[in-house]
Amino acid sequence: MTLRQVILKNTHQTSGIDKWISWLKKDISVRNRHKSKKLSLKKQRKVVQLFNNLFASGFSLTDMVTFLKRSKLLSDCYTDRMNKALLEGKDLSKMLGELGFSDTVITQVALADLHGNISRSLLKIESYLANLLLVRKKVIEVATYPLILLSFLVLIMIGLRHYLMPQLGENNFATRLITNVPNIFLLLLAVVLIFSLIFYIIQKRLSRIKVACFLTTIPLVGSYVKLYLTAYYAREWGNLLSQGVELDQIVKVMQNQKSKLFREIGYDMEEGFLSGKAFHQKVLDYPFFLTELSLMIEYGQVKAKLGTELDIYADEKWEDFFTKLARATQLIQPVIFIFVALIIVMIYAAMLLPMYQNMEILS
Question: For residue 36, is it within any domain?
């Protein structure tokens, strides 16, 4: 072995040992900090409620974080992250981002910082989170019992498939269907997972506008997407316009927000305005908005009260969205029960039909 090879070998060994030493010296808490869990939806609502009350009482952002730290209303891991955000000079919206709030909420708070009505925005965010919690609670309440029943039924079917069905034979449709139900269920689950994975991969490469347009074409889901996005954008545009922010400034503001869809719409609208399109005409280009939003914008511009009109319209659409969502949750239980009833009928048919056939043969 030459001298050069020996030196290179020793150098590689030394660098490898150095890497191990540096890795062992790493602060494990730093890694855990990146993986620290986000605030639950219930706690997010509580934080927004506390911020709103403290803002109303005249607390500054620093005072609020100190108060939350001393009062132990939030765990130390969350208040430490808030303190760190303050030291880095981050505003309230970015601080909420550190706590795991959604882009929707972060964008609303960032815009509230611009139009100045942060207390009102926090109140509406609190209402939005409260409605989400209510819908989630209803879904859990409605779906829990039927899903437990369905699970027991699947176990019974597996037992029947292995112990009873081989004795009955496969001479009728019900027997064959029950024998293959577990396979059919697993196949459907696999198909759903594959399509979900394909959609997830594709949507990562597409613009948010194209993804939103695609979602509106999905049966049942599309109407909810339209209602949600219409209510959301009508509220934010209404808040900004009410504070005297001009349209050309609004699109610039939109281009600097965290939400990708918000940014893309901002850039696209700017191009539309430069080409001579009016606000209400440009809104019609987006199929993920209700067509009546364009009419409301045109009507508001005629009356010179666009901000107020959009704000009122947004409140109505939010109410419609959550009412429709609550109504949809009530359909979950009947649908599952109907499915369970059909399976029970098939089980009885699978057991009784062979008996009747044997009786006919004997007679």
Answer: no
For residues 171 and 203, membership in a common domain is answered with yes
pLDDT in tens, 200-234: 888 888 899 999 999 999 988 899 999 999 998 99
Task: Give the end of a domain, one of 103, 126, 149.
Answer: 126
Whether residue 263 sits in one domain with residue 231: yes
The half-sphere exposure of 302 on its side-chain side, counting CA atoms within 13 A, is: 7
For the chain, the average pLDDT equals 79
Strands (DSSP E) along the chain, which ranges?
none
> What tokens does 46 get?
């509580």
**Do 186 and 361 form a contact (C-beta atoms < 8 A)?**
no
- Residue 8 lies inside a defined structural domain of this protein: no
Q: Reduced to 3 states, what is the DSSP secondary structure of residue 116?
A: coil
Contacts 24+ apart (CB under 8 A), 59-65: 61/86, 61/91, 61/92, 61/95, 62/86
Answering whether pTM is above 0.85, one says: no
Residues 148 and 255 in one domain: yes
Domain contains 13: no
- CB within 8 Å of 85: residues ≥ 6 apart: 94, 95, 98
Number of structural domains the chain divides into: 2
- Average pLDDT of adjacent 10-residue blocks, the chain of 363 residues: 45 48 45 56 85 83 84 82 86 83 81 74 83 81 77 75 65 66 80 90 89 90 92 87 82 85 92 90 92 89 84 89 85 80 76 65 59
Domain residue limits at 61: 41-126
